[in-house]
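Quarterly update from the structural biology core.
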Amino acid sequence: MASRLEMVEASCTGLVRRMVDLPRAISRAVDHGLDLMRAGGGGRRNHHQFPPPNHVPVHHHHHHHQPLDRSLTTNLQPDWVFLAGFEQQFGVVHPFFYACRFVEALKMARDEGKLVFLYLHSPDHPFTPQFCKDTLCSEVVVQFLDANFVSWGGGVDSGDGLHMATTLRPGSFPFCAAVAPCSADGLAVIQQMEGPMTPEELVEILQTTLEEQGLAFGNERAKAEEKRMADLRLRQEQDAAYAASLQADQEKEAKVEKGTQHQDNAIANAQDAQILIRFPNGERKEKTFSCVDKLEAIFAFIDSLGLPGIGRNYRLVSSFPRKAYGVDQMKMTLKDAGIYPEATLFIELV
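Predicted structure, tokenized:
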């Protein structure tokens, strides 16, 4: 079954507020064949655990928030800067923000069939502290986002957060959006929310967005499933046709090979060679060989006789036309040597 994100990519209907191109600095990660799951969980982190290097203490005071101490985040990896600063100010009860590149969050959303909840954090905006504390970190918003979205946040002053702020150009803060990948380097903004709002208002907007998508993409989902089944049947038919063709070719080759063997056997039986051998002492021996036998068979026959005066150093010579056969010719067949259907060979000592 096609996912909601695949429907967004396929249709991009009126539910999509606008289409934007990902910044080059972000889309380049896609071009380089981004591997989503990083060592240690692909960006997913425990709410109470930072990576061992450059550890930043987390203050677990849910109602008393200190101003951000930027010196605590200067040595962190870029993916962790937003999260470290956010938890320092607002505690660890918040939506499950993935500490990863933005394109990694998009890939996770695609794989899980969800949208990305994008939050751009402007720490110096006057509405930001209250929104984060009362709305974004409220229990109802945290549970709703964790169940339905892949959440990603970034500061507007650095990293991917800065790139996305430059691309989306928020009119006001706080800024949130429900987004989905629409191509390798494009982004579909499904819904965007600007300015302060209560937890109930934020959840209602996001809930409505999900419900409207379900209605809008119902037919698209059916069409996608029908296309998937048609593609599957086509692949099965192609595989069956290929298997049948391959089997036919193999059977044809087997018949040709079998016919060749029969033909060779028939030729061998029909073209026996009668060989008369004359020895230096005047004795003669006659034997029938096959035309496909090698000359070494004649040498073996002569050696098997054990005639006196005949050692291992000799060669065979035909009378007319005169031609000598020695060690170098032993692997030649009688047919290739031209001594069939009959021939007289003399033993010449060397």
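The first strand starts at residue 18 and ends at 21.
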